[in-house]
Write a structure and sequence with these properties.
mainly alpha, two-stranded antiparallel ribbon
Length: about 190
């Protein structure tokens, strides 16, 4: 049974939002868990495709929350505990950036070109943010003996994997988000 969000009471709308965020966080977690490869200090995965999809479907706020929860949960449950706080912030901001750009003006996440732009900016942010997080981890947590200069060099080893991860996420999420947005519009479903 479908109820348009505008007809829901505020409590029902809040429950609706919690369910959407929880489901998207679960999808992000599962996609990251299914397809991931350990890298030098972290992991390369396909979960970014669902982070970007969530940003288009749920917009910036709910997309950001679901990305932060789903990805940091993956880190916590798969041995990447040191990365979890960084991931919570980075993936949350990645979802916020993608959702903000995808839904700016009158685009509503429906423009292929605008979504591509949103995903590219979010991907570039993610690559840079994980690089600097890797420097912090290499210097102060993982390899405490490394100097700051060595930490900057060590963290570079994960850049190619993060670039591949961002590109794969964009390639998967662009057609998927476009198709799902069209299907939801056709079915007159408002998220």
């Amino acid at each position: 049974m479908y109820y348009e969000k505008t007809n829901l009471s505020s409590r029902a709308a809040a429950i609706h939002d919690i369910i959407q965020v929880g489901l998207m966080a679960a999808v992000i977690f599962v996609m990251t868990s299914i397809a991931h490869i350990p890298s030098f200090m972290g992991v390369v995965h396909l979960g970014d495709s669902m982070v970007l999809l969530g940003a288009v479907l749920l917009k910036k706020k709910k997309g950001a929350i679901s990305a932060a929860i789903g990805m940091s949960l993956f880190d916590l449950l798969n041995g990447y505990t040191a990365w979890a706080p960084f991931t919570f912030v980075i993936k949350g901001l990645m979802g916020l950036i993608a959702g903000s750009i995808a839904h700016r003006k009158n685009y509503n996440g429906e423009s292929f070109i605008n979504n591509l732009f949103a995903f590219l900016i979010a991907g570039i942010f993610m690559i840079a943010a994980y690089y600097f997080s890797g420097v912090i981890l290499a210097r102060f947590i993982v390899l405490k003996a490394a100097t700051l200069n060595e930490a900057f060099i060590i963290a570079m080893k994960d850049i190619p994997g993060n670039i591949a991860q961002a590109i794969a996420g964009i390639i998967i999420s662009l057609p998927l988000s476009s198709t799902i947005k069209k299907a939801l519009k056709y079915a007159n479903i408002v998220l």
